[in-house]
Specification:
Chain lengths: ~180, ~140
């Protein structure tokens, strides 16, 4: 009887340790935009993300200069003309998991949840709500999501000359892997 | 001037313009080897400078080639080849190498190293991309 009590105490202790903030320093965020000349794809593999499974909060931060394009020229235009990376070096997201207490974050498995919050980019903050696929195992918590952003919402100016070559909306994909080991 | 000469000239001009356009469009990424560092820093001092005033540090370093000297904490090969330089426990320097880069065997934790790369700014770690190794000293101290 006592043994059962001790074991269950240790178990809940281990669980509460797991429920602290977990960090991924090498998350991936990419964006995709359909263009007549060539589709534009850019990937950032140094995205910082934190998730707190006690409070159900999420925070993501990335450096705009971390996006790699296929063409150097696109990268230069992106940093210098569009998002003005030197003036606004970061893009961030802060949000909470909707209905957090009702979701099975205490067991292994896969499920979808809605994360609501605010995204800041190019000095502008906009609300964002997105569906996130969570996968939990003994070793890690994985989160991935896809959503669309409207370029004009963030006061990113596209010159008239190329306005038809750049989509009004871009598709953003993020994937994070939070390791449980620490 | 005959009409043919004018057409010939226009054709030549168009070809040159297309050529220049294509060259610019496909311009290769400048290799780190050809670029000299704007600043040379020590990993620990650099982290201290960045955490003290991130905006000022960004103005100085962002988008510039930086040579950083430090001790390797971790070698990662998962998504992209990467070295983490020892910092203050919370913050460190992430040196991201081009895809397909492979490290020599002496590049391992606790070795001293000098890396050159482009400064992208700081999250928890200062991030350098397009890195190359300038010199490495195996397990000093």
């Amino acid at each position: 009887m006592l043994l059962v009590l001790v074991v269950s105490c240790m178990h809940s202790f281990a669980q509460s340790m797991e429920k602290q903030t977990m960090i991924d320093r090498n998350g991936t965020t990419s964006f995709f935009s359909v263009a007549p000349l060539e589709n534009i794809v850019a990937v950032n593999n140094q995205v910082l993300a934190a998730i707190n499974l006690q409070k159900g909060t999420v925070a993501v931060s990335m450096l705009m200069r971390g996006f790699r394009f296929k063409k150097t020229l696109m990268e230069e235009h992106f940093n210098e003309n569009y998002v003005e990376s030197d003036k606004y070096p970061k893009a961030t997201f802060q949000g909470t998991i909707k209905d957090f207490t009702l979701l099975p974050f205490d067991q292994n498995g896969s499920f979808e949840a809605v994360v609501e919050g605010e995204v800041s980019l190019h000095g502008v903050t906009q609300p964002l709500s997105t569906e996130v696929q969570f996968t939990l195992t003994d070793k890690f918590v994985q989160a991935s999501t896809t959503f669309e952003l409207v370029v004009a919402d963030f006061e990113i100016k596209i010159p008239q000359l190329v306005v038809n070559n750049i989509a009004k909306k871009v598709e953003v994909q993020s994937r994070f892997n939070f390791s449980k080991k620490k | 001037m005959s009409r043919n000469t004018i057409y010939g000239f226009l054709l030549l001009l168009a070809m040159v313009l297309i050529g220049v356009g294509l060259y610019l469009y496909n311009k290769p990424r400048p290799s780190m080897e050809q670029q000299s560092a704007a600043y040379t820093v020590k990993a620990m001092d650099w982290i201290e400078e960045y955490t003290a005033d991130e905006n000022a540090a960004n103005q100085k370093y962002l988008g510039n080639v930086i040579e950083v000297e430090g001790e390797i904490q971790e070698v990662q090969m998962e998504k992209t080849p990467m070295l983490i330089l020892t910092g203050n426990g919370m913050n460190s320097v992430q040196c991201v190498f081009p895809e397909g880069y492979s490290f020599d065997p002496e590049v391992k934790p606790e070795a001293s190293i000098t890396v050159k790369g482009m400064c992208n700014g700081m999250l928890l770690d200062i991030i350098l991309t397009e890195c190359m190794i300038v010199s490495s000293v195996p397990e000093e101290k």
